[in-house]
Amino acid sequence: MKLPQYLLVLIILLSFSGIVHSQEEKVTVEQALKQEKIQEQFDIVIKKSGRYQEYKVVKQVWLNKLKSNTIDTLKTLESKLNTTNLQIAEQKTTITGLQESLAKTNENLSTITQEKDSMSFFGASVTKSSYNTIMLIIIGVLLGLLGFFIYKFKNSNAITVQAKKALTETEEEFEEHRRRSLEREQKVMRKLQDEINKQRKAGAK
Question: Cα separation of 93 and 101, whole Å?
C-alpha cells in the first residue's frame, strides 16, 4: 500500500473505535438514568459529560432525562407526603375520639364509685367491685388503644419529617444542578461567540 492508503485505513479504524466507544458510553449512561437513584444519576452524568477547557458539556438528552427523573422523584415524594398527612389527620381524629371516650369513662367511674354497692350495668345488677373491675378493664383497653395510636402518630410524623427533608434536599440539589448547568452553558456560548467573532475578524482581514 502507498502512504495515503495507510492513512485512510488508520482514519477508518480510529473512526470506528470512536463510534463503538460512543455507543458503549451512551448505553451506560442511558441504563444509569433508568436504574440508578437520582444522586447517582447526577454523578454519572457529570462523570460522563465531555469537557471544554475547564467546563463540563452535558448532552441535552441526558439533561432532559435527568430533569424528567428528578420531577418524577419529586412527584413520588409529594404523593407519599400527602398520603402520610392524610394518615396523620385520621389518627389525630381517632386519638381525639379515644381521649373524649376516656374522659367520659373516667367521669362515669367517678360518679358510680359514689353510689351504693349494687347497681345496674347494661340492665344487669352487679356489685360495686365487679362494676369497678369492668370499668378498669375498659379503661385499660382504651389506654392501650390510645397508646397505640399515639405511637402510630409519632411514627407517621417521623416519616413525614424524613419525606419533607428528602423532598427539600432533592429540590435544592436539582435547583443547584440546574443553575450550574445554565451557568456552564452560558459560559460555553460566550466562548463560542468569542471564537466566532475572532473568526469573522480574521476573515475580514
Answer: 12
Round the CA-based radius of gyration of the chain to a whole number and report it: 35
Using the 8-state DSSP alphabet, how is residue 115 labeled? S
Name the least confident of 80-89, 99-108, 116-125, 129-138.
116-125
Share of the chain above pLDDT 90, in %: 7
Selected residue with higher pLDDT from 83 and 50: 83
Q: What is the largest CA-CA distance in the chain?
A: 123
pTM: 0.37
Going by the DSSP 8-state scheme, the letter that residue 55 receives in this structure is: E
**Residue 112 has which C-alpha cell?**
358510680
CB-count exposure of residue 41 (10 Å: 0-12, 13-18, 19+): buried
Grid cell in block for residue 150: 399515639
Which helix (H) or strand (E) covers residue 120, if one does?
strand 119-121
How would you classify the pairing of strands 124-126 and 119-121? antiparallel
